[in-house]
Amino acid sequence: MLVDADRTEAIVFDLDGTLYVNRQLLTEIEWTAELLVAQGHGIVRGEARRMIAAARKRLADPDDREPPLSRVCMELGVDLKELHRAFEEFVRPERYLVYDPVLHALLDSLCDRCALYIYTNNNLAMTHKILALLGVEELFDKLYTIEFCWRPKPDPEALQLVLEDIGGPPERLLFVGDRYQVDLEPALEHGIPTLLVNETADLLQVHKLLGLLP
């Protein structure tokens, strides 16, 4: 769907994998999920890792695109709130993330043109911490984290609540994310333009879509 630069007034960003990419932090998140699955089933972490891999394969869509970790853990009996309490206890983004001047410049240059939002499966405390470490926390108008309705993406009801809270017609929005099935496909079904990114540098495409670059 084409972006109408003149009508775009708000941009909704995914967080993890979109505004930053860090394999070490991802590994820490996966380790925490394995720990909870192991505790819940009375097994060792190696067995939990295999259970998670099998659940991912089972829950994958027809194109073999993996589901979010939150949904995998829920499938394996992990309470979503317990999972996020464990993330807050064990995951330390400050070990891996630092101020990103390029990201700050890219987002800051959009603030005068559009309202900026985060819509993420991460929790509020972790989202605040990650954005602060990257140096961009103050640039966002509102954060839609898992606490907003405790329904991880992709979820039609959760997305509808987010859209109602932001307000306005679909064409005034642009959704930006790194996972088509999770971040973008649901938005497209609402007639919202989207942009798929794989690294921070891809965010320059937002500026091109809005006519901010030649």
TrEMBL record:
Alphabetical keyword list: Hydrolase
Membrane-traversing stretches: none
Substrates-to-products reaction catalysed: 2-phosphoglycolate + H2O = glycolate + phosphate
EC number: 3.1.3.18
Pathway(s) served: Organic acid metabolism; glycolate biosynthesis; glycolate from 2-phosphoglycolate: step 1/1
One MF annotation (Gene Ontology) recorded for this entry: phosphoglycolate phosphatase activity
InterPro entries reported for this sequence: HAD-like_hydrolase_sf (IPR050155), HAD-like_sf (IPR036412), HAD-SF_hydro_IA (IPR006439), HAD_sf (IPR023214)
Keyword Hydrolase tagged: yes
Top-level enzyme category: hydrolase
Superkingdom assignment: Bacteria
Example GO biological process: DNA repair
GO cellular component, one term: cytosol
Gene3D superfamilies: HAD superfamily/HAD-like
One Pfam family this sequence matches: Hydrolase
Similarity comment: Belongs to the HAD-like hydrolase superfamily. CbbY/CbbZ/Gph/YieH family.
Alphabetized NCBIfam families for the sequence: HAD-SF-IA-v1
Name the UniProt record assigns to this protein: phosphoglycolate phosphatase
Source species: Geothermobacter ehrlichii
Lineage, broadest ranks: Bacteria, Pseudomonadati, Thermodesulfobacteriota, Desulfuromonadia, Desulfuromonadales
